[in-house]
Amino acid sequence: MGTYVIRRSLQAIPLLIGISIVIFLMLQMTPGGPLASSEAGGGRATAERTERLREEFGLDDPLPVQYVNWAGGIVTGDWGTSYNTGRPVLGTILDRLPTTLLLTGLAFVIALAIALPVGILAATRQYSVFDYVSSGVSFVGVAIPSFWFGLMLLYLFSFRLGWLPSSGLEDLRMQHVGPAALWDRASHLIMPVAVLSLIATAQLTRYVRGSMLEVLHEDYVRTARGSGLPERSVIVRHAFRNAAIPVVTIAVLMVPELFLGAVITESIFAISGMGRLFIESADLRDYPVLLGILTIAAVLVVLANLLADLLYGLLDPRISYG
Amino acid sequence: MSSILETVRRAPHLGRRSLLAVLIVAALVVAGCSSGSSKQSGGTALVAMTQEPGGMNRLFNDQSGSFLSFWAQEPLFVALPDGSFKPVLAAELPSEQNGGITNKGKTVTFKLRNGITWSDGKPLTAADIKFTFDVIEDPKSSALPPAAYDLVNSVDVVDELTARVRLSKPNPFYLGLFQQILPKHKFDSTAVTTDHPQARLPLGTGPFVFKDFKEGDKIVLKRNESYWNRKAHPVRLDGITLKITPDAQSAISAFRRGEFDTVFFVTSGDLPDLTKARDDGEPIMVTLQKTKSHVEWLWLNQSDNGDHSKPHPVLGDPAVREAIDLGIDRKAVIDQVLKGFGTLNGSVFYSGLAATEIPAAPFDPKRANQILDEAGWKRGSGGIRAKDGVRASMRFQTVTGDQTRELYQQLIQQNLKSIGVEVKINNVPSNLMFGSYQESGRLKRGNFDIMMSRDGYTVDPLEEGWAANFTCVQVPSKSNPGGESETHWCNREYDGLVKEAGSSVDQARRKQLYAQAAQLFARERPALPLYSSTWGWTWSNRLKGVSKEYFDGIWRGAGDWYLAG
After folding, report:
1. A-contacting residues in B 27-56 (Cβ below 8 Å)
2. What is the DSSP string of B314-349?
3. How far is the alpha carbon of A102 from chain B, nearest alpha carbon, in Å?
4. Closest approach of chain B CAs to the CA of A86, in angstroms?
5. Closest Cα of chain A to B327: distance in Å?
6. What are the CB-based long-range contacts (under 8 Å, 24+) for A65-74?
7. A32/B52 Cβ within 8 A
8. Between residues B379 and A178, the one the model is more confident about
């Protein structure tokens, strides 16, 4: 097991290097360089100034040199400075990270909290009204584009009914003490978390249901029932434990997906997380920040894959890592 | 907190473990919220900001958001709607009479008001003015100074409160210098870059103090408790919080629901809906600028596809330019497309100091046809005119993606068709239109016939070089790639008028010269003004004390704002 972890971690290194080269080159290929906005003549930057900035940012170096400088910085903790604010990239990203973690964490917990009971129930009552309704709803959930869902929620609950605030994470007018603060924070989170968890919930529900159905027809479940165990115990202790194995894999792989989903959610609800930072930086062609966020996303995807594989082994003793 | 406990206790179905969980979550959330307590005297105004700047120091950032830096950074002089200036930090307007202008306008002496302090209590002195100029001049600093500083040779400290500015030639726009001053005591060197804390949240002398800038979230300003100008501006608000809300439509919807006190900023396209909402009784105020603002121009190319040795085959004929001018139904554009939110304008100088009233050409297709007939443009196939084998058929372009513009482009297309001039709408992305000469920008290369964009809203035609844009030296070419002229027009008489107006310090004489230049421009028609957009501001009824005292809108008056109820 230990050697397996080490081997997989080592394998991740060339993978990450490959990804970093690809994202670096792809950004270089996008039209309009990082100084496009000031070159367009709209701003006050003169030609000499643009020239000086190119030098300062090392934009005239050959691409391989630029890449090595950047990648070296990533490893040593110097992620560069934002073209826009002049602040260090790592600090900028770390400032935004907690908000995104809060959103994705809540969305993940809620997705699990809904998907597990609904999926199990739907499977044990296959072809019941509950099963049809939950399947229908989860189909719709997978199909709805989340930005559209977000805008509809915003329109209905904020602009029409006026029940929920439309932006940010706190009411900037109120004193944040006591239960009112609790409600304030919660009311700001309801819609973003709903939007972010929508697809994850829908997908997970379908996986849980499918996985449970497969297991429920196995012999050992029939044996458990036959030996007189209470139905609840059969479902939870015998069936679900086995059905959970593929579900865990899917759930772990969903974490990076949720993280990327925050790009849309945070933009709709004006929340200052990493997702918003990504959009803003793309608008401003702030390459160092974009590269920083993409690097984090890449690491996250690789880590999630590794974690999923490891959990698989832990949950299923039949799998051994040789 | 007690009421949560109460609710939890009364919920018998919750087990002890879940009760504990609820309490922990509650505690975490409450702890996570800041418990800022301030006295409830003036309240905090909440302003939605749709564009987040990289920093709030206007000297280092030219994005629209940093425009509001004047809440902390005060200027020497502030522009009023008529283009005149009023001293703010300066004690008086320099003039030849008071000895402020000497050496035939090439030396200007600025005197600071006595007793002004930075918000940290340190006195404001002439050394700060000199330091600001040194930062602008330092090639290692990332200051983005306005063009007005190009003419400044040196700045010297005469005494504590007096700074002398030497100009390479007389610059009547000297009052526009030093819209921001940097506090010398906050810097170690003049090589100030954008990562300096002062470039992000500048210390100022103004009614408010920058406290916090949470990127992507908010910018917090608090009242300057020791504001030097309390007598004139009491500063009743406790502070202003700028909430960053990137989606302009959401920001306006949230504002109308009362989530914000005002929105920085609304565009003319938002004004019809906002005005209607106000008239329907929503608790908001909308005020529209009475004078003209940002004019939409049709740039008529005066070169043959960038070749300046030949006139444009069609637009080079003054008769065609006049006929187009008369052939466009501007009133229909304003009434039908802009829902009345626009005004007619016929003058190249329409705002501020040099505002010259020239009526827009009347809509007279009959006369337009007559002019073209007389000039020898004969109707040919499809009713399109031609002369000497050249068809009156041209490209008509603007930046892609603006639906309102596309609507009136079609209107103009129909107008012109009825006088036998064909225009083909073929819009381009903004970088193709405005790109530099090296990037083959269409305007710079003269690779267009009629292009449309907004420009020219300035306090003084010297600001951003608006008047100079149309002079011969600004015609872009291979040897002059930095030229700014959109029209590639060259007229020595215009050049002479603008040059004299740009170097005289006699403001009355300058106005006269610009008026002459504007008349000439309207006769020659290198560009046709389409309409002047209506500019406006909106704020909630609970925000009081809002007025439009200054050239650039309601924003500078925040020192007089307060919240009702």
Report:
1. 29-30, 32-37, 44, 46, 52, 54-55
2. TTTSHHHHHHHHHH--HHHIIIIISTT-EE----S-
3. 11
4. 4
5. 31
6. A66/A24, A67/A21, A67/A24, A70/A24, A70/A288, A70/A291, A71/A17, A71/A20, A71/A24, A74/A20, A74/A292, A74/A295
7. no
8. B379
Taking CB atoms and an 8 Å limit, are B200 and A96 in contact across chains?
Answer: no
pLDDT band, very low/low/confident/very high, at A49 (cuts 50, 70, 90):
low
Instruction: Tell if the CB–CB gap between A40 and B430 is shorter than 8 Å.
Output: yes
Answer yes or no: do B35 and A175 touch at CB < 8 A. Answer: yes
B250 → chain A, closest CA residue = A166
Residue A100: DSSP 8-state: H
pTM attached to this predicted model? 0.77
Q: Round to whole Å and give the CA distance between B263 and B251.
A: 7
Alpha carbon distances (Å) from A112 to A116, A189, A260, B429, B544: 6, 17, 18, 46, 49
Output the six-digit token pair for B186: 């906050």
pLDDT tens track for A108-140 = 999 999 999 999 999 988 899 999 999 999 999
Q: Residue A321: how many CB atoms within 10 A of its CB? A: 14
Q: Do A270 and B145 touch (CB under 8 A)?
A: no
Most A-contacting residue of B2, B3, B33 (CB-CB within 10 A), to test interface: B33
Sheet of B390-391, strands arranged across: B378-379, B385-387, B390-391
User: What's the distance, CA A227 to chain centroid?
Assistant: 44
Nearest C-alpha in B relative to A38: B62
pLDDT over 70 (residue A46): no
- Chain B residue with Cα closest to A277: B216
Chain segment B443-487, per-residue pLDDT in tens = 999 999 999 998 888 888 988 789 999 999 999 998 888 888 999
Domain residue limits, chain A: 2-76, 89-315
Task: Determine phi and psi for B155, rounding to 5 degrees.
Answer: -130, 125
Domain A89-315: which CATH number of 3.90.1170.50, 3.40.190.10, 1.10.3720.10, 2.40.10.10: 1.10.3720.10
Which residues in chain A are contacts of B35 at CB distance < 8 A? Answer: 175-177
Strands (DSSP E) contained in A98-151 are none
Nearest Cα neighbor of B394 from B442, B448, B434 is B448
CA A49 – CA B77 distance, rounded (Å): 27
Looking at the complex, report in whole angstroms how far the Cα of residue A283 sits from the nearest Cα belonging to chain B.
11
| Extended strands (E) in B203-322 | 208-214, 218-223, 239-244, 262-264, 284-288, 295-300
The answer to whether the Cβ–Cβ distance between B194 and A86 falls below 8 Å is yes
Cis amide prior to B173 (ω within 30 degrees): no
3-state DSSP percent of chain A in helix, strand and coil, to 5:
75, 0, 25
**How close is the nearest chain B Cα to the Cα of A251, in Å?**
23
Q: Which two tokens stand for residue B534?
A: 């209506």
User: Which residue, chain included where needed, has tokens 């302090």?
Assistant: B117
Helix (H, G, I), strand (E, B) or coil at B237: coil
